[in-house]
Amino acid sequence: MYQMTGAQLIVRLLERQGVKTAAGIPGGAILPLYDALSGSEIIHHVLARHEQGAGFMAQGMARVSGRPEVCFASSGPGATNLVTAIADARLDSIPLVAITGQVPLSMIGTDAFQEVDIYGMTVPITKHNFLVRSVDELLEVIPAAFRIAMSGRPGPVLVDVPKDVQNQTIRFAEFPPVATPEPLPALDMAAVEEAARMINAAEQPVLYLGGGVIHAGAAQAAVAFAEQAGMPTTMTLMALGAMPVDHPLSIGMLGMHAARYTNFVLEEADLLVCVGARFDDRAIGKAAQFCPKAKIVHIDVDPSELHKIKQAHVAINGDVGEVLEALLPRVKAALRKRWLSHVESLRARFPVEWAGQDDPRTHYGLVQAVAAALDDEAVITTDVGQHQMWVAQAYPFRRPRQWLTSGGLGTMGFGMPAAIGAALADRSRTVVCFSGDGSFKMNIQELATLAEEGLNVKIVLMNNNSLGLVYQQQNLFYGKRVFASKYRGAPDFLKIAEGFGVAGVDLDTAANPRAALTQALHAPGPCLIHVSIDREEFVYPMVPPGAANTEMIGG
Amino acid sequence: MIEQVAEPLQTQTGYAKVVLEIDVNNHPGVMSHICNLFARRAFNMEGILCMPVSDGRRSRIWLLVFEDQRLEQMIRQLEKLQDVLAVRRHGAEHEVFERLEDFFH
């Protein structure tokens, strides 16, 4: 017979679930849990400086490990500060277990100090959430939270635990089993056969990979399938790395900031095989005009994604890895010489041109110089904005989970805490966070956490002293009426880094910027690498609002 | 940042009605999960009924909704909720709401 408090039980259940690191910030309503956590010899607690930072650290860990990771916050403002990180995890299907303290049960609903209805608030942004009403429920709820977070399409789960539940004593005979994923949906083999028939009959098929391929660990299966079927392969922002960008069948990222030829190839497709992607508006532009000539095969583990935006001719609900493996022996080996040579001619007619790529002080040159200094084992995170798109376009991603970015929610402030999480998940890797000056300031306090943990995180800060993508859109689509997108003040980021105890390198003033960059990337420990970027450099090509993907401007 | 590209929402009047019968786990919070799905999409619920069944561990929810083109997606979203055990679809002629009419006149 075991006897312990609810707080101790939570910690033991997390340990049994294999949690080694968790990020959070304590406060009144979660102090019993923190007291129990102080007694854990297994869980390393990382003290964030803002709960959103803690949420993104847990996300960074989960995006690297593929397992649910944990963050903690107290009630009220602690819990509301987690909301953005939870919503971000939901849109990018990241397994996350967020545990919040709550005021005691008898005080819920009384507007008690630091009381908010975080359960109610997180209903639409979690895969599921719990408000624990007795200590006995914890035996069921904590494993369920992990099971739900990791099963099928992954996602965030919130567990709200009132302070008195944390303090209650429980006696129980046995720990519940460690949570494992639920069984995958059974495959509809008739649909698989029909999909194979369509692929074999197609003249100009395209494979369209999404983040689901990464989550399912199906990147290798996707590449094998593409090779067998001879299909040019495009990836969403979330899928970059699923197929190495220099693979002969890769046609790179599709959508708003795709290379021109990629969107033109999709325009001509007669069959689109969509695997673990969800026809997001940034990827497909005007839905009615996306792949106008193509029949659609849609494969997804989440049945509600099928037929959501585009009606599929064949829809297969299942684990994308399993479906691809089932399709492989049914798909004829095809060279598709005519189609692939046409793809090549489009690529040659609309070549990707990255201005200034030999100069590490230009945006594309910097991305390429960082890539040249690192191998594929490094993890790359970004914030959100122009720098994010430049990295997505120009960095040679070659393996799944090499690339961590906030895709669905597009959260500025994601990059650095996610990089901290990535480094916590695997301390042997170098982690580079590309950021912009607008995004960086949104979670800049996490420099303190970074310095404290001494992690191998390099922040490459592209500084144009503006909200660059807003500035770009005001210039292109709002009659050049630039408003609230240029900063009047200009903080000294190197001094800020120094103040937090993080080393800094300024490529603006370096005699040999390439050498300075390489040295900074290879020195152990955290470092801020600062580069000024011309504000007039825009992200091109760009599909304007309301337009079809083929109506790109620039580039 | 940029306007999303979508057709404006159609009003739901003019569509036929359907009755959805939903088996759920019975605990506080289940209704908010379900109502949220509909409210957020401006998918009007014309009628809603909920009572516990058998031993009280489960409840049954009856919804009267319009059969607009988003209904299939709504049902798939419902089925995705952890606390939803089954969704069954009936025609508007189902008597559950008809018998209640007397209370609303």
Automatic annotation (TrEMBL), chain A:
GO cellular component: acetolactate synthase complex
Cofactor note: Binds 1 thiamine pyrophosphate per subunit. Binds 1 Mg(2+) ion per subunit.
Cofactor needs: thiamine diphosphate; Mg(2+)
Catalytic activity from the UniProt record: 2 pyruvate + H(+) = (2S)-2-acetolactate + CO2
GO terms for biological process, alphabetical: isoleucine biosynthetic process; L-valine biosynthetic process
Domain Thiamine pyrophosphate enzyme N-terminal TPP-binding: from-to ranges: 4-120
InterPro entries: Acetolactate_synth_lsu, AHAS_TPP, DHS-like_NAD/FAD-binding_dom, THDP-binding, Thiamin_PyroP_enz_cen_dom, Thiamin_PyroP_enz_TPP-bd_dom, TPP_enz, TPP_enzyme_TPP-bd
Keywords attached to this entry: Amino-acid biosynthesis, Branched-chain amino acid biosynthesis, FAD, Flavoprotein, Magnesium, Metal-binding, Thiamine pyrophosphate, Transferase
Domain spans labelled Thiamine pyrophosphate enzyme TPP-binding: 383-531
Annotated metabolic or biological route of this protein: Amino-acid biosynthesis; L-valine biosynthesis; L-valine from pyruvate: step 1/4; Amino-acid biosynthesis; L-isoleucine biosynthesis; L-isoleucine from 2-oxobutanoate: step 1/4
Top-level taxon of origin: Bacteria
MF annotations from Gene Ontology: acetolactate synthase activity; flavin adenine dinucleotide binding; magnesium ion binding; thiamine pyrophosphate binding
Domain Thiamine pyrophosphate enzyme central: 192-327
EC number: 2.2.1.6
TM segment ranges: none
UniProt record similarity statement: Belongs to the TPP enzyme family.
PANTHER family xref list: ACETOLACTATE SYNTHASE ISOZYME 1 LARGE SUBUNIT, THIAMINE PYROPHOSPHATE ENZYMES
Protein name stated in the entry: Acetolactate synthase
Source species of the chain: Pseudothauera lacus
UniProtKB/TrEMBL annotation, chain B:
Catalytic reactions on record: 2 pyruvate + H(+) = (2S)-2-acetolactate + CO2
Keyword presence, Amino-acid biosynthesis: yes
Pathway(s) annotated for this protein in UniProt: Amino-acid biosynthesis; L-isoleucine biosynthesis; L-isoleucine from 2-oxobutanoate: step 1/4; Amino-acid biosynthesis; L-valine biosynthesis; L-valine from pyruvate: step 1/4
Superkingdom of the organism of origin: Bacteria
GO biological process entries: isoleucine biosynthetic process; L-valine biosynthetic process
ACT domain boundaries: 19-92
One GO cellular component term noted in the UniProt record for this chain: cytosol
Enzyme class: transferase
EC numbers: 2.2.1.6
InterPro entries the record matches: Acetalactate_synth_ssu, ACT-like_dom_sf, ACT_dom, AHAS_ACT, AHAS_small-like_ACT
CDD domains in UniProt: ACT_AHAS (cd04878)
GO MF, any single term: acetolactate synthase activity
Key word Amino-acid biosynthesis present: yes
Keywords: Amino-acid biosynthesis, Branched-chain amino acid biosynthesis
Family: Belongs to the acetolactate synthase small subunit family.
PANTHER family: ACETOLACTATE SYNTHASE ISOZYME 1 SMALL SUBUNIT, ACETOLACTATE SYNTHASE SMALL SUBUNIT
Subunit comment: Dimer of large and small chains.
Entry protein name: acetolactate synthase
UniProt source species: Pseudothauera lacus
